[in-house]
Structures are given as C-alpha cells and as structure tokens.
Amino acid sequence: MTATVWRDNDGTAAGAPVVARLADGRHLALAPADEEVVAAMGATDMPGLVGGAVVVQAGEPRYRLAER
C-alpha cells in the first residue's frame, strides 16, 4: 500500500487516498471511508504505513485502517 495525506491551509488533514495491492496482484485506488479515517491518517504521518494493511469496504472504493 502507498498513501498520501493532503492538508488544508490550516494544516488539517483534508484527504488521504491510498493505492492498495490485492493478494492477486491487482491494484485499487481508494478513498477514506470517512473523516475519522482522514484524521487518523493525518495523525499517523509515518513511513511505516507503506506496506501496511487496510480494509476495503464493499460498494464504492473506500477503505478503513486495519487493526495493528
């Protein structure tokens, strides 16, 4: 997985898209499931997130952070 966090003019996390690779090698571009995920991603800000796991929700391409 690779991710980025973009911030508004006040420095608050405003978005956090990810590109995730499935076990079969396919890639998905995903949006955060809600503002809680955006805030958590903004607070994480660490290189260890690359290669981490997310939970892909059914329906629209959205994700939640996996439990660590």
Class from secondary-structure proportions: alpha+beta
Dominant shape:
globular
* Largest sheet: number of strands, sense, barrel closure: 5 strands, mixed
- C-alpha Rg, in Å? 12 Å
Task: Provide the helix percentage.
Answer: 10-25%
Say how many strands there are. Answer: 7
Low-confidence stretches: none
How many helical stretches? 1
Order of helices and strands: EEEEEHEE
Beta strand %: 35-45%
Count of all domains: 1
Notes on the structure:
The protein is an alpha+beta fold. The protein has one domain (2-65). The protein is built from 1 helix and 7 strands; from the N terminus they run βββββαββ. It has one helix spanning 35-44; strands at residues 2-3, 6-7, 13-15, 18-21, 27-32, 54-56, 62-65. The strands form 2 sheets. The protein has a 5-stranded mixed β-sheet. A hairpin with a 5-residue loop joins β6 (54-56) and β7 (62-65). The model has no long low-confidence stretch (mean pLDDT 88).
Strand and helix layout:
Blueprint: E1 2-3, E2 6-7, E3 13-15, E4 18-21, E5 27-32, H1 35-44, E6 54-56, E7 62-65
Parallel strand pairs: 5-7
Antiparallel strand pairs: 1-4, 2-3, 4-5, 6-7
